[in-house]
Amino acid sequence: MQSISKRIAWLSLLLTLWSALAFAVHHHSSQDESATCQVCIAAHSASPTNASPTPKPVFRRVVRYRPKPTSAKQWLVAFALYVRPPPEV
């Protein structure tokens, strides 16, 4: 099952690369030939549509939160609550 998936993936990759290469080297000697060429018509028909308008940003003042100063003893108590003790044997 996996080998079939790999083969299909490789085939898809090779077809994609081949079509990209064919499109890159595709050219015409005159303008009249490119008007009736199916590759040229397909390439120009898939032009992107207009993008939707982007919303305008709203700038607002942000109030900074300043915590009250704490003593070093309070920091040690909080630190002791979050440290895991060593495993017991």
What does this structure look like?
With 89 residues, this protein is mainly α. The protein has a domain at 1-43. 54% of the residues lie in helices and 0% in strands. It is built from four helices and no strands. The longest helix has 23 residues, at 2-24. It starts with a helix and ends in a 7-residue tail after the last helix. The relative contact order is 0.05.
Q: Main β-sheet, in a few words? A: none
* Percent in strands: under 5%
Category by helix and strand content: mainly alpha
The end-to-end span amounts to 48 Å
Question: Given the C-alpha coordinates, what overall shape results?
Answer: elongated
* Poorly predicted tracts of residues: none
Instruction: State the order of secondary-structure elements, H for helix, E for strand.
Output: HHHH
Computed Rg: 32 Å
Helix count from the secondary structure assignment: 4
Mean of the pLDDT scores? 77
* Portion of residues within helices: 40-55%
Question: How many strands?
Answer: 0
